[in-house]
Design brief:
This is Glycosyltransferase family 2 protein. Keywords: Membrane, Transmembrane, Transmembrane helix. This protein is an alpha/beta fold and about 400 residues long. Helices cover about 55% and strands about 10% of the residues. It has a domain of about 190 residues: Alpha-Beta Complex (Spore Coat Polysaccharide Biosynthesis Protein SpsA, Chain A). An 8-stranded mixed beta sheet has the order 3-2-1-4-7-6-8-5, with helices on both faces. It starts with a helix and ends in a 23-residue tail after the last helix.
């Protein structure tokens, strides 16, 4: 018979070990991602870009308020021989007309049953296939590429024959609400620091949906036509399993403005439900496949997907510490609690170090102190996921737009 204390101790270990491992993976990624990558050799390939046939593919749904500025800004930052193709997808506004006026090639798509970015990209690919470019760079309509980033992405993608992801960050005004600032910082941790760490460990770069370049030989065959909320993440997993491991090019950048405070929760819900759905389905199979095939990209990608996004990781860590503290009080061995507390504290320390090194430009000290409230604010997102993940694609309202409800099927 197992007495109460031994039973509590066994239960404590069973509860603690998975979370100790998750925090260990997180800490290792942050440690390896502390310092900037040296992309000098890759960046020098950009000099070849004038010889390349580059297509910038932009799926756009009702983007009349921003599409002109997006195309004009993009035109100033891409090689002179690059072509911009806008797929005006199920638009009820002047997106197509304004994009043409701004100098882009436009393809209009109407399909009420197959909606979402994946289907728009698939439609754009069919247009490009008539005269295939050397490289396709996918951009969201609300994003801007950094100077020379298109040339760097295309050159490296073609030289390495794999997809290449730029640093994808969100920016906001210094006086943005704390919720927006913290959300931007969480994105920095995910898309910059953890990207660095995972790729230094030998893992695949995460494709983030914008600022990602594909050689045509890869783009022509990848599965695009789907309505997955995290189609970019799923696409990265697919090409990694095919042996075409995506690269992270830190010196190339793509950025967008933060959503308004009232829209941030909607945006984060869509992103995080898509991530959690994909992680639940693919993380463990990737780890197993990576071990079986001795594939570091698959193995480390699987480990990365096991770790929840920052707010959920911290929220579940706190909850588990409270459970273990209660079990210890009732007589269980304190070792599981102490080990998890140590890893949790180390994760907090590494996050603060990241903030000191990289995050102060997006997150003020005052907003940093409100992270516990942000975690509480995010709890409904995760409760909603447990009840049933978000399956609809919901377009984020752009700056200056009125809060007009989208079609319920968007």
């Amino acid at each position: 018979m197992i007495d109460l204390e031994n039973g509590l101790s066994l239960a404590s270990w069973l509860l603690a070990v998975p979370f100790i491992l998750l925090f260990a993976i997180f800490v290792v990624e942050l440690t390896f991602g502390l310092f900037r990558r040296n992309d000098q050799d890759e960046a020098q390939m950009a000099a070849q870009s004038e010889k390349l046939n580059i297509a910038i593919l932009i799926p756009a749904h009702n983007e009349a308020s921003i599409i002109t500025e997006t195309i004009e800004t993009l035109s100033d930052n891409i090689p002179s021989n690059a072509e911009i193709l806008v797929v005006a997808d199920n638009c009820s506004d002047a997106t197509a007309e304004l994009a043409r006026r701004a100098g882009a090639k436009v393809a209009e798509r109407e399909d009420e049953t197959r909606r979402g970015k994946g289907h728009a990209l698939d439609f754009g690919r069919d247009i490009l296939a008539a005269d295939p470019p050397d490289c396709v760079i996918v951009m969201d309509a609300d994003c801007a590429l950094g100077k020379n980033s298109a040339a760097k992405l295309a050159s490296v993608a073609l030289a390495k024959a794999v997809p290449v992801q730029a640093t994808n960050l969100i920016h906001s005004a210094p006086d943005a609400p704390p919720v927006v600032q913290i959300s931007n910082f969480a994105m920095l941790v995910k898309n910059l620091v953890r990207q660095r760490g995972m790729t230094r460990l030998g893992g695949a770069a995460l494709l983030t949906g914008t600022g990602m370049a594909f050689p045509w030989s890869v783009f022509a065959t990848v599965p695009l036509a789907n309505s997955h909320l995290a189609e970019d993440l799923a696409l990265g997993i697919t090409v990694t399993q095919q042996g075409r491991t995506p690269l992270f090019l830190e010196s190339a950048s793509v950025s967008s403005e933060a959503a308004a405070e009232e829209d941030t929760l909607v945006q984060r819900t869509r992103w995080e439900h898509g991530f959690l759905t994909t992680a639940k389905r693919d993380a463990i199979p990737l780890v197993i496949s990576g071990l079986r095939r001795i594939s570091r990209p698959e193995f480390f990608l699987g480990l990365h997907l096991l770790v929840p996004l920052l707010a959920l990781l911290m929220a579940t860590g706190i909850f588990m510490l409270l459970l273990l503290a209660g079990a210890t009080y009732l007589g269980a061995t304190p070792l599981p609690f102490l080990l998890l507390l140590g890893m949790f504290s180390l994760a907090i320390l590494m996050t603060v170090i990241i903030w000191l090194m990289e995050g102060r430009r997006v997150l003020t000290f005052g907003a940093l102190m409100r992270i516990p409230l942000y975690i509480l604010w995010k709890i409904p997102v995760y409760l909603n996921f447990m009840r049933g993940s978000e399956t609809r694609w919901i377009r984020t309202r752009r700056s200056g737009e009125a809060a007009v409800p989208e079609n319920k099927d968007d």
